[in-house]
Design brief:
Blueprint: E1 2-6, H1 10-22, E2 26-30, H2 33-41, E3 48-52, H3 60-69, E4 77-82, H4 87-96, E5 100-103, H5 108-163, E6 168-171, E7 174-181, E8 189-195, E9 201-208, H6 213-228, H7 231-234, H8 241-251, E10 262-269, E11 274-280, E12 286-289, E13 296-297, E14 315-319, E15 323-329, H9 346-355, H10 361-376, E16 385-392, H11 396-399
Parallel strand pairs: 1-2, 1-3, 3-4, 4-5
Antiparallel strand pairs: 6-7, 7-16, 8-9, 9-10, 10-11, 11-14, 12-13, 12-15, 15-16
Helix pairs in contact: 2-3, 3-4
Length: 400
């Protein structure tokens, strides 16, 4: 260590300096506190100052206080030599910034022990300073990585939104209104609706387990698969809808420890008002009858996609003649929790759909969203939410 010994007594200063040098340290001896302070102010590197307390002009305590006021990178350990032993004296010195004391006349072994203790403390402080510097560098790198990740997520969110159809569409005598309310920037929910060659239209809604980037990446992959394999265009054929979901189940089999899976609903609606549906663990669509009658759920549920091989998926048909709307949705709607943890639930959702049955279609989804936000007490949700509403606006004769 680099050590300055300060004492106006030349003999004492020499004795201390000799003892310190014998321990292998670099020693500078000065005869006054002012000279020691000048050395420090002039940029001399110093780790430890051993100073007498009582000196003319500037005392050791005053020197300690001045050293503490100097702008420095590291800590200078300050050891005071004194014959004072009162509590008040120690408190005064510690308040000035002294680290330790050595009673005069000093003992060589005690001096050596004090210096070794100071060296250990300074080494620990150096290690801590280096660790803090490394931590700050790591934090800067993490901040940069986080900013880049956020940019990537925002780009992914834009890409995912680009895969969705328009919020509103018309297929013959049916209007469609839809929305996606992700719980984060990207969503595990995705849907689509599209015209089919036979004059009908098709739609699907899927919900990947979990939410956030991982679920979003899987929903993107599934959606691309449906497009790339031309599955959407095949829905108008006589092939059962469940066969298409079975193909997805075969392709997207999950494996431990991830066990990624998704629920799905696939449907086609003819312009004559006949709907075919295959359901794979997805929430039951809700039928909203004409004339303000009570809504009711459709379907049997089925098994989620990707968990078991060889699963078959049934299909059922619905006559839309007496129905005003069909509502497709993901479980984020009915599992939306209020501040006490109560779920919004299917009964409350059906009551809301009945209450909004007379509203224009373009006002229904905003009303549902407002009701969910009010229920939750926040404008953000724990889970992704997607809703598709199909409304019949014309008669079968008009379709003909």
């Amino acid at each position: 260590m680099k050590i300055i010994v300060v004492d106006d007594d030349d003999l004492y200063c020499e004795l201390i300096s000799h003892s310190v040098a014998a321990l292998g340290h670099d020693v500078l001896s000065v005869d006054s506190a002012r000279r020691a302070l000048e050395e420090v102010r002039n940029g001399r590197s110093v780790d430890l100052i051993i100073s007498d307390w009582m000196m003319p002009g500037m005392s050791g305590v005053d020197l300690c206080a001045e050293i503490r006021r100097q702008p420095r990178q590291g800590h200078v350990f300050f050891l005071l030599l004194t014959s004072r032993e009162s509590r008040e004296d120690y408190l005064e010195a510690m308040q000035a910034g002294a680290d330790d004391f050595l009673i005069k006349p000093f003992d060589h072994e005690m001096l050596a022990a004090k210096i070794r203790a100071a060296e250990r403390i300074l080494d620990l402080q150096t290690e801590l300073s280096e660790s803090n510097a490394q931590l700050q560098q790591s934090n800067r790198e993490l901040d940069e990585a986080y900013r880049n990740l956020q940019k990537d997520i925002q780009a992914a969110a834009k890409l995912q939104l680009g895969l969705l159809p328009p919020d509103e569409a018309r297929f013959g005598r049916f209007l469609v209104s839809a929305t996606l309310m992700p719980s984060s920037a990207v969503s595990g929910d995705i849907y689509n609706f599209f015209s089919l060659e036979n004059g009908s239209f098709g739609l699907y809604s899927l919900d990947v387990a979990g939410h956030g980037p991982r679920a979003a990446m899987m929903s993107f992959a599934i959606s691309r698969f449906i497009v790339d394999q031309g599955m959407a265009g095949k829905l108008g054929s006589a092939q059962p809808l469940g066969a298409h979901i079975a193909e997805l189940n075969k392709t997207f089999q999950s494996a431990p420890p991830d066990n990624d899976y998704f629920t799905m609903l696939l449907a086609t609606i003819s312009d004559q008002g006949r709907m075919r549906i295959s359901q794979a663990g997805h929430p039951h669509p809700i039928a909203v009858p004409d004339a303000g009658r009570s809504p009711y759920p459709l379907g049997q549920g089925g098994f989620a996609v990707g968990l078991l091989e060889g699963v078959t998926y049934d299909e059922f048909s619905v006559d839309l003649a007496d129905l005003h709307r069909i509502v497709f949705y993901t479980d984020g709607v009915i599992e939306c929790g209020d501040p006490s943890g109560r779920l919004f639930g299917i009964d409350r959702f059906q009551a809301l759909l009945q209450a909004t049955s007379a509203l224009p279609l373009d006002e229904v989804i905003p009303t549902i969203k407002a009701a969910l936000c009010e229920w939750r007490g926040l404008s953000e949700f724990d889970d992704d939410i997607s809703i598709i509403i199909v409304e019949k606006v014309g008669s079968e004769q008009e379709a003909s």
